[in-house]
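Before the break, one more example. Copy the sequence into your notebook; we will annotate it together after we see the structure.
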Amino acid sequence: MVYFDFISKNQRYLTAVKNVNDHIIFDMDFPKHWVIKDEYNNSEVYTIKLNNLPPSKNTDLQSVSFICKCKKENIDCVENVVDSIIEYNIIKDKKEELFTTKTNELKKIFNDNSLEELEDLEFIINGSKPIVNNPNTRYLYKIAYYLVVFNRNKLQKEINIYEKKYGKLTASDWGRIYQITKERFKKFG
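Here is what the structure looks like once it is written out:
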């Protein structure tokens, strides 16, 4: 990576670049809650040193130095590690923020709905991605199942129950039923 690219990309965190005794030192300030995983500390190419910040500095930060021999491949390695640490922690922060938002949304769902409606609430996992579905999802799954196995009587019964409870099936509901049949009932052909 070109120095200018690295410096401009990380100027928010980079506090100094020094050349000392044939070593390059990148001094960086990260938020104190950021994690530097152990896997980054086990290198023969560079050293990571946690520094004590002077009392006048922001106490919400941690000062970290990345030290390596002044060789292109070593500097490139440090730059890649710094990029990985920053990316990992930014994603971690965004996930924590999203978790808080989704937790608040779920609290609102529980506060705004009756116990009967909440009993129909389902969490469906597609791959490793949890998805919260509307309370009517159970009925849509049943409709999709009976549609796939061609059981007209049970299909009509589930449609009647659904429409009595939630109103007429909409184009969006039929779209969800189609998606369910595609994703969940592939074995039926």
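The chain has six helices and six strands. The chain has two domains: 3-88, 115-188. Try to locate both features in your own notes.
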